[in-house]
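@channel anyone free to eyeball this complex?
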Amino acid sequence: MMRLPWFKYHAPKSVAEAARILAAEGTQAMVIAGGTDLLPNMKRRQQTPATLVSLRQVEGLKKLANGTGLTLGAGLTLTEVVNTPAVRDGYRGLWQAAAQVASPHLRNMGTLGGNLCLDTRCLYYNQNEDWRRAIDFCMKRDGEICWVATGSKRCLAVSSTDTAPALISLGAKVKLVSAAGEREVVLADLYKNDGMDYLTRRPDEILTEVALPKLEGWKSTYWKLRRRGSFDFPILGVAAAVRAAADGTVEEARIVLGAVSSRPLVTKAGDLLVGKKLTDDVIAEAGEKCSSAAKPMDNTDLDLYWRRDVVGAFVGYALRELRGDDMRDTRFKIAKQVL
Ligand SMILES: Cc1cc2nc3c(=O)[nH]c(=O)nc-3n(C[C@H](O)[C@H](O)[C@H](O)COP(=O)(O)OP(=O)(O)OC[C@H]3O[C@@H](n4cnc5c(N)ncnc54)[C@H](O)[C@@H]3O)c2cc1C
Ligand code: SF4
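replying in thread with the prediction:
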């Protein structure tokens, strides 16, 4: 049985109190929300904070406000996000992404903030300590080399959050609060293409809320590839959001890929849709653009080349759904792995 290492535990009741504790404890402290990512990582000694600052009792992180846009507290569980009618009806891509994270039990515990700050993943890293010691560890933790690309100076571990690509395609911003003040960041800018140092968030900052603009006339969707249809991390996520005129001409579009690099990949494929209708040819062109932008590495599940090949197909499913095709059968077949 894998046991947790010893740690000091704080359970503040407000964001201000949590921020003060983080400022005092320094970089050896980490925030914990649902713990569904952090606790397994601690058991495997991938992350060993001396102090945990729990956000579970911070009611201020449960905010839910629907006005000129939608504000979601970072402490909302993914189940709460999925059960919010404003998300289901107005931000479909986020709803689909959150509903496909892990399993119902994990969504009951796991939070939106934790999902956005999720550690990057790699086959050589998400292993127990003995396994990692047997390969002399790797540079993300305790070692010096990257086993995925031995010449690489940068860790290539994969961004595996489902909600981030969806939220980025919807134009989300996040609020970061520390004892020194607060700042708002466009969600895409929260991420860096570095598997070790993957967030621009400072260790003393708490992600408190996600703000979504009002999206009149937009449609959005999220398509996920994973080994097990019941629950699994993404090995590809496609988030697409489109605003089209009454005749179907695209006026604005964003396509963001998940699980193909160390951060959600904002593609340029959305731009080439603008001014066009979503015909089969235009959709195929967007798929090819995304396929060539995606550079998945051989450090996650299933064959690398096959994963790159299906990017175009998944972008196609997403865009066909947004133009109004009935894609329920395709979704069902992907979930049941018969496609
Ligand atoms: C078997 C299994 C399957 C999973 N499948 C998926 C999947 O399909 N898709 C997916 O996206 N995830 C998956 N996960 C990962 C995880 O369950 C979810 O990402 C979950 O949303 C994490 O939220 P949490 O609140 O539990 O985060 P925690 O584990 O509490 O924290 C995760 C990280 O975020 C930081 N953090 C948490 N909250 C904040 C905050 N408010 N401000 C700043 N930093 C914060 C923590 O310090 C930590 O680094 C899976 C996990 C397991 C165990
Ligand atoms: S990408 Fe390389 S350095 Fe990063 S976790 Fe994997 S093996 Fe380690």
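from a first look: The chain has a mean pLDDT of 96.
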